[in-house]
Amino acid sequence: MRRSLVVVVLCVLLTGCFEIEQSINLQKDLSGTADFHLGIDMEPMVVIMAQVGREMEGKKGPMTAAELAKAKADFKKNMKKSESGKPSREDVSKDMPKGVKLLDFKATEKDFGMATDMKFGFENVKSLVGVKLPSKEGGDPSQKNVIDTPFEGLEVIEKGNLITVQTKPTNPAEKVNEQAEQAAEGGGPKIDPEMEKMMKDAFAKMRVVYRLTAPFTIVSHNATRKEGNTLIWEYDMKRFEEMSKTKKKMDDFGVKVVYKR
After folding, report:
1. How many Å apart are CA 222 and CA 164, to the nearest integer?
2. What is the pLDDT of residues 141-161, one digit of tens each?
3. Is the predicted pLDDT of residue 248 greater than 60, yes or no?
4. pLDDT-based confidence at 28, cuts 50/70/90?
5. SS3 label, residue 244
6. Which of 32, 186, 215, 261 fits as disulfide partner to 161, beta carbons 3.0 to 4.6 Å?
7. Quick one: which of 135, 82, 128, 84 has its CA closest to 103?
8. Residue 143 pairs with which residues in a beta bridge?
9. Which residue ranges make up each domain of the chain?
10. DSSP result, 109-170
11. Taking residues 207-217, what's their average pLDDT?
């Protein structure tokens, strides 16, 4: 019974391994363009769920190649049945905040997931924080998007001739964990070490990248690396775990750069 509840919760909450890339290209007047890429690979989840289901049947040891192939084939069939929930350009563009326009949109199906690419034009970079992705239909709180606001937390502070751009990096694993806790409060199973390990395994290959390009002089930054006038911040599961355990300020890990006009 316990394992069956775990399966239900993971099916609802565990979307898959994420690849998130956010690129902002600023002009001198703080207008510009922004690209957002969201890739979801569900293959790790398929493997985990197949193994759990196998253990529920009393089977021991690793899955056979035939069992894994069947689990993947079944997933693909179910995935095709749920294609109606795929986002469209119209859905994304209809509620753009003032000063922001959706320039391009593409949703590409993968073997075990989806890659969504969006390009925005903005009059002022501060407006990007109001961009929201369409919610799933039905109003079920357990079916919330893991990424609702792609530029959530973005702050642009102007003081004299200095411009500070900062944001807290999005951690999909943290958001999924929050949803699991909400499910537990609603009567579902609580997160125990077993479920926590399954989530960690599924997010093992998670990748989050921020890029910021601007025509200003860089006064200070905490980027992972720099290519020309582009600053790049890179995060994976290991770095997010380090962030959650350390007592250091977010300035040491979050996206932050100070420019001089």
Report:
1. 12
2. 444 555 788 999 999 999 999
3. no
4. very high
5. helix
6. 261
7. 128
8. none
9. 2-260
10. EETTEEEEEEEEEESSGGGGGG--PPPPTT--GGG--S-S-TTTT-EEEEETTEEEEEEPPP
11. 96
List pLDDT tens digits, range 150-196: 999 999 999 999 999 999 888 776 666 665 555 555 555 555 566 56
**Lookup: tokens for 127:** 């407006």
Task: Walk across the sheet containing 225-227 and list its strands.
Answer: 100-110, 113-122, 32-41, 17-26, 207-213, 230-236, 225-227
Q: How far is CA 238 from CA 183, 203, 207, 256, in A?
A: 26, 10, 10, 20
Tokens in use for 191?
A: 């997160």
| Whether the model pTM is above 0.90 | no
Do 34 and 24 contact (CB within 8 A), yes or no? yes
Sequence-separated contacts (24+) of 101-109 with Cβ below 8 Å? 103/33
Could you give phi then psi for residue 77, rounded to 5 degrees? -65, -45
- Cβ burial 10-29 (10 Å sphere, 16+ → b, else e): beebbbbbbbbbbbbbbeee
Residue 104 vs residues 30, 83, 117, 119: alpha-carbon distances, Å: 20, 21, 8, 5
Indicate the DSSP class of residue 247.
-
